[in-house]
């Protein structure tokens, strides 16, 4: 727990939470402007039940980007500062140490996500939709899975790979996951062996877009696809196994 708290304190000292708050205010300001002339499916976009899926996608994408930025250097920085060697002297194993670092990343990213979701609540109250504040609170569950997938995968990869390589891989997974539905739509026209390979690769990407969609469905009273939630949890579990198994030679 002490290791996790140290990670949280370090991230807070780097003012990432303050940056998140500013981003949240900008999001509220952006979507509080007059958009009365825009419609989706014949419904005015100023209708919160129409706008909320868009807002949730934007907020989750921002939370995911922040989670990636905060997680990518945690493990490398600990080893570069040789903080790890102080931990070994206390008899703490690598598996426990790496998992504590991962949990620190997850918790700080959750805090950032909650700040961003607070902007959704503020927007709802300003526009007279305070009756769905409870649903917005429940929808943060999907953000928590969304962010945890990114943090856990990034932490696992950063144990074995250089930060630059981890960053390239995770940016590809993050962007691919956030726009996975579009990738599936585009890949539908592909045929042959190459098309099959690409479709297989897309299926291996975390369905971050699906998690955001389920949160939007919750607000709009539509059915929630439990399969998407289960798959998100499976990705977290796989990444967790990697964190427990992977070792660094510097130790």
Give a written overview of the molecule.
Strand 1 (39-40) and strand 2 (43-44) form a beta hairpin. The chain has helices spanning 2-13, 16-31, 48-71, 74-80, 83-88, 94-126, 133-160, 163-178, 180-187, 192-203, 208-220, 226-245; strands spanning 39-40, 43-44. With 251 residues, it is an all-alpha fold. Helices cover 78% and strands 2% of the residues. The protein has a two-stranded antiparallel sheet.
Distance between the termini: 21 Å
Let me know the number of strands.
Answer: 2
- Topology as H/E string? HHEEHHHHHHHHHH
What form results from the Cα inertia axes? Answer: globular
- Which sheet architecture does the biggest sheet show? 2 strands, antiparallel
Rounded to an integer in angstroms, the radius of gyration calculated over CA atoms is: 20 Å
Give average pLDDT, whole number.
Answer: 80
Percent helix:
over 70%
Oligomer: single chain
Strand order of the largest sheet: 1-2
Tally of helical runs: 12
Strand content: under 5%
Which spans have pLDDT < 50 for at least 5 consecutive residues?
Answer: 35-40
- Which structural class do you get from the secondary structure elements? mainly alpha
